Amino acid sequence: KYALKKFGCETQDRDVSEINVHPWYNFEQYRNDIAVLRLADPVDITRNVGPVCLWNDIDDINEIEGELGTVVGWGFDHNKKLTTNLMQAQMPVVDKNTCVNSNRELFLQFITDQSFCAGFRNGTSVCNGDSGGGLVFPRRGTHGPNTIWQIRGLVSIGVALKTGGFCDTTQYTLFTDVAKHVDWIEDIVLSDNQ
Q1: Which of 81, 144, 171, 192 has its Cα between 20 and 30 A from that of 107?
Q2: Is residue 62 classed as helix, strand or coil in its secondary structure?
Q3: Among residues 65, 35, 76, which one has the least CA distance to residue 161?
Q4: How many contiguous H segments (helices) and E segments (strands) does the chain have?
Q5: CATH 1.10.10.10 for the 51-180 domain, yes or no
Q6: Do 172 and 65 contact (CB within 8 A), yes or no?
Q7: Are 69 and 90 in contact (CB under 8 A)?
Q8: Distance (Å, rounded) from C-alpha 7 to C-alpha 164?
Q9: pTM beyond 0.85, yes or no
Q10: Which SMART domains does the protein's record reference (predicted)?
C-alpha cells in the first residue's frame, strides 16, 4: 500500500493542474521553500489516503522544541539505494542555537524565522530524494486511531557528506516552517472556491 512501484486497487494517480511556488522563494538560499500543487481531479479519502491538517496551534517554533515529529519519504536509504517503500522516521525539533552551532557554515547561512531544524545526529535522518516531505505532529489531545495530524515542516535542506553529494545522516535537517506560510496557502486554496 505504500510501495512506489506497485500499483494496487487502492493506488490513486492524479495529474497536477497547477503549481503555485511561493512568490518570495529564493532558490539560492532556500527561503520560502514551499509550493502548493493543485490536482486536476480530487483524490478519494480512504484508510490509506487522507489529508493532513495545516498547523493551527501556536506558531512559535520554540513551543515545540524537543517534541518528536514524523517525517516520511521515498528518498535514499542508509545503503545509498533509492527506496521503493515509503520510509518514516521520528525526529525532534531542535533549537536554533544548537542547530547553528552544529554546522555554522551551513545553517548560519540558511536558517531564518521561516525555517527550523529537526533531527538526531545518530544516523536517523532524511536523505537525498526526501525533499518536500512533510514533518507532521499529532494535534494535542488526539491519539490512537483518532489522531489528527498537523503538518509543521517540509524537508528543505539536508547536509551532504564532505566526501560527496550524498546525505550526512549525522547532521540536522532544515525544514521550511509551514506554520509561517498558512495565510499564503489559505489564500490559494480559498481563491479557487470563490
Answers
A1: 81
A2: helix
A3: 76
A4: 3, 9
A5: no
A6: no
A7: yes
A8: 34
A9: yes
A10: Tryp_SPc
